[in-house]
Automatic annotation (TrEMBL):
<feature type="domain" description="ArsA/GET3 Anion-transporting ATPase-like">
    <location>
        <begin position="13"/>
        <end position="178"/>
    </location>
</feature>
<dbReference type="Pfam" id="PF02374">
    <property type="entry name" value="ArsA_ATPase"/>
</dbReference>
<protein>
    <submittedName>
        <fullName>Anion-transporting ArsA/GET3 family ATPase</fullName>
    </submittedName>
</protein>
<dbReference type="InterPro" id="IPR027417">
    <property type="entry name" value="P-loop_NTPase"/>
</dbReference>
<dbReference type="InterPro" id="IPR025723">
    <property type="entry name" value="ArsA/GET3_ATPase-like"/>
</dbReference>
<dbReference type="InterPro" id="IPR016300">
    <property type="entry name" value="ATPase_ArsA/GET3"/>
</dbReference>
Length: 334
């Protein structure tokens, strides 16, 4: 299928990271749906063992196998894979040594857990390696099995180390299958076919972590993607009102007149107490809008494509997930 005209033409691995609580898994799932729209085939991968994909799509826990979980708008398919480090290691032993049966015996003895505990970087090699294999995989017809792969990656504070595979295993092996495997993974992760996207909220801490994460990727030479601002609240008030309220210059008397005109009074009297309560809400909203404006300006300095996803009043159910996917597609991210 011909690639669509998007901000990420040519990108086949979309890595999604973000500070905890920003909705990283939700955005990764919506991005997978958006990328699959129009008849494409996309794999959505998770690596943290939280079964977050199953929760977002309201499914039972996912096994360690690729299976279809959703149909995208226009007939595309979304597959999912919940990577288990132990199973990935068995795949690794089979791929390079033909030792899957022996690997299962080692697993029963606890050797697999021992190996990944004393060498945490090796665990990252295993799970990123499985993802990279899916990116490269071809069918019998010579075409790529998946048009794109979306990786629901670890949080922002760990993303650079997680992806910097070659350095992580440098202390484990300087040659042989492990080193070759790490180099293959690094070849995918650091290529123009990969983009690392950040999910944030318009709040100081997640925005700062996003900026720090982008800088860290730049330092180690990994490809930064876009910034997805999640849970954006729509402002229902004119800028002039917000500015006045933020400076404490909003007149509750205007609300009193408006309430009277609408036939809404407080116990049949002047309606002042209702107006004051509303004025306090407006002031809080104005201060929030002012904060969000500052955080947008900070994100602008990063110079990365930016996408804003709405706060869903009813929470993120399947319908909301498709709504977010459409927003992503309309904004040109997929």
């Amino acid at each position: 299928m011909r690639a669509r005209d998007t901000d990420w033409d040519g990108v086949r691995l979309h890595v999604v990271t973000g500070k905890g609580g920003t909705g990283k898994t939700t955005v990764a799932a919506a991005l997978a749906l958006a990328l699959a729209a129009g008849g494409r085939k996309v794999l959505l991968v998770e690596v943290e063992g939280r079964q977050g994909i199953a929760q977002v799509f309201d499914l039972p826990p996912l096994p360690y196998e690729e299976r279809k979980i959703a149909v995208a708008p226009g007939g595309g398919d979304v597959y999912a894979l919940a990577i288990d480090a132990e199973e990935a290691m068995l795949d690794y032993l089979e791929m390079f040594y033909g030792m899957r049966r022996a690997g299962k015996a080692l697993s029963k003895m606890g050797i697999v857990d021992f190996a990944t505990t004393i060498a945490p970087g090796f665990r990252d090699v295993l799970v990123t390696g499985k993802t990279s294999e899916a990116v490269r995989r071809k069918g019998k017809d010579g075409r790529r099995v998946y048009d794109a792969v979306v990786l629901d990656a670890p949080p922002t504070g760990r993303i650079a180390r997680f992806l910097n595979v070659t350095n992580e295993v440098s202390g484990l092996a300087r040659m042989g299958p492990i080193k070759n495997h790490a180099d293959l993974v690094n070849g995918v992760v650091s290529s123009p076919e990969t983009a690392v996207h950040f999910v944030t909220l318009l709040e100081e801490m997640p925005v700062q972590e996003t900026l720090d994460g982008l800088q860290e990727l730049h330092t180690i030479g990994l490809p930064a993607g876009g910034v997805f601002i999640n849970m954006v609240r729509e402002s229902l008030l004119p800028d002039s009102v917000l500015k006045a309220a933020a400076k404490g210059r909003f007149d509750p008397g205007e609300l009193v007149l408006g309430l009277k005109a609408a036939g809404l009074t407080d116990g049949g009297s002047t309606g002042v107490s209702v107006a004051e309560a509303l004025a306090e809400e407006i002031a809080d909203h104005a201060h929030r809008a002012e904060l969000e404006h500052r955080e947008r300006l900070a994100l602008n300095k990063a110079g990365r494509p930016r996408y804003e996803l709405p706060l869903l009043a009813d929470g993120v159910d399947l319908s909301g997930l498709y709504e977010l996917a459409e927003s992503i597609r309309v904004q040109g991210a997929a």
